Amino acid sequence: MERSWYWRVALVVAVALYSVYQLVPSWFYFALPPDQRTTEAYDRSVPRWAPDAKKHLNLGLDLQGGIHLAMGVDVDRAVKAKVARRADELADFLRTKSVAFEGVQPVGDGRRVEVHAPDPGAVEAAVLDGYGREMFVPGGAPAGTVQFAFRDDVLREFQAKAVEQAEKTIRNRVDKWGVTEPDIKRKANNQIQIQLPGFKDPEKAKELLGRTAQLEFKIADDDNPALDALRQQLPACPGARSLQLPLPEAGCWTTENVSLPGGAGRSVTMLVANTRPELEKLIKEKANPLLDPQKNLVGIGEETVGQGIERHGYYRSYLLRAKTELTGDYIADARAAVDQSQQFGRQGRPLVEFTMSAEGARLMEKLTSENVGRRMATVLDDKVETAPYIQSTISARGQITLGSGTSPQQQFEEANEIALVLKAGALPAPVTISEERTVGATLGPELVRKGTVAALVGLVLVLLFMVLYYRASGLVADVALVLNGLLVLAIMAAIGSTLTLPGIAGFVLTLGMAVDANVLINERIREEMRGGRTVKQAVQLGYDRVFWTIFDSHVTTLVAAVVLMQYGSGPVRGFAVTLAIGLVASMFTSIVVTRVIMEYFTRHDTARLSV
């Protein structure tokens, strides 16, 4: 046997062992009753030598039951609220410009702002000079008044942002609940579809999703050394300059260099962990005993490392003052913008502009003037979204200038995200439940049973056909087919893929394509043997000459699967993911695994083969 054959044997054995090893958590996961699979009983059941207990096959909504909600975002009411806020804003603006007016109010079913003034022309000139990019004068106003309306492109952008804002708020809440593999996405007609597998209380889901986002402003207590004692109690995080993921399972500590008022600086202690529950447990057990709850608390934020598709997230701590200095109730509006200042190095950089109500402006001015040079954390639903430095006093209008450590595109994306966070806490668009479906506890298991039976029956029939028709060669194909199935499930478990009913269909389809590849190989070997080749020559030529046929058929199907993954959603995407994984596994088992076995049994020139 050639040396390359031994390398291929080692590869096949390694893949087989990896597949079995990777499926160990899934075996213990499905061995437990459904009500125990998300408890500590499952974590204790998985052996220590097995992969991470979180790397098991997940069941989708159609297989384990749960809740399906469709929530409609009332963008019309959001637009009316924006017009009302703009009316108050224009009144303040005209006062600062010393332009005489008698009153400002929304009119026209709440979509226009009407200003009563002795000189409507002066009001029109002043407002268009300040707000001409967003508003125009539609005409038709009564005598002694002038009306303003938002431009169509501004309204369309605002409505889209309102739906996006609602989606982000809902996603933050669902992530906080710990629901496994939730599916949240925007649909047409300002709808948001929410699927919560395994979540059985629809009333609780509607209550939590319908709440207004809790936005708070807190000052970071960076000059407090209370957490520094943890450096002696906890392990240091791996990585000298940047964190190396995954982090230790129970969390670890690292440092962050921060600036303090007056130009000073210090290295503050920061706790980090792979997941939010891990960090919450670490804070509760280690950090909180060191703090005075009347003075400080530890906030939690999420960060990422890496670039592109290789970005990975982790959770980090912020030491904050316990007092909530300001809430999102005082924010009127926020949007991403571009710095128009003439300062060197800042022009054209993305930033976030926000507007406070009159009372909010007074409170914000007092807060920021007393804390210039410190970090102010924006906390949404108990999650620190951002903690920029206060560079100057902020009152009615302010801005958050982003750091220069990322690309302009990343900065602008961050600016949009922060603006959405600010608006989410200030005035989210009203959300109503337009559709509600509860998948019962009997439907999920029934679909699992039927899908499993269908897959097993199909597999058994295919295995019998291959043995009866191709005899020994068919038996070799059956071995590869079983390994193909194990490999597909192992990869899905490793990447945390969700198994749905369409996914089971894709799995069965890939088994069929694997059989088809083996049929092509066996038929080609038959033809070579009829042509007078020896068994050894027939096997070698059969695999060589059929390779590109199998490769082309798999690649063309794989292209279709990639397109479905890119543009499909829900069940279609689940089908495409399983199909793509199965195609790769099928290529390996059909071309590599079966050839290794066949070459072993036909290694002699006098060998015989039943095919």
Describe this structure in words.
- It is a single chain.
- With 611 residues, the chain is of the alpha+beta class.
- It is built from 16 helices and 21 strands.
- The chain has helices spanning 3-22, 24-31, 40-45, 61-64, 75-96, 120-131, 152-177, 202-210, 276-287, 358-369, 408-426, 443-470, 472-494, 501-530, 535-567, 571-601; strands spanning 58-59, 66-73, 103-107, 112-116, 135-136, 145-150, 183-187, 191-197, 215-219, 252-259, 265-273, 296-305, 312-321, 326-327, 331-338, 350-356, 376-380, 383-386, 397-401, 431-439, 498-499.
- It has a four-stranded antiparallel sheet with strand order 7-8-2-20. A four-stranded antiparallel sheet has the order 3-4-6-5. A four-stranded antiparallel sheet has the order 14-9-17-18.
- Helix 1 (3-22) packs antiparallel against helix 16, helix 13 crosses helix 16 (571-601) and helix 15 (535-567) packs antiparallel against helix 16.
- The longest helix is centred in the last third of the chain and has 33 residues, at 535-567.
- The mean pLDDT is 82.
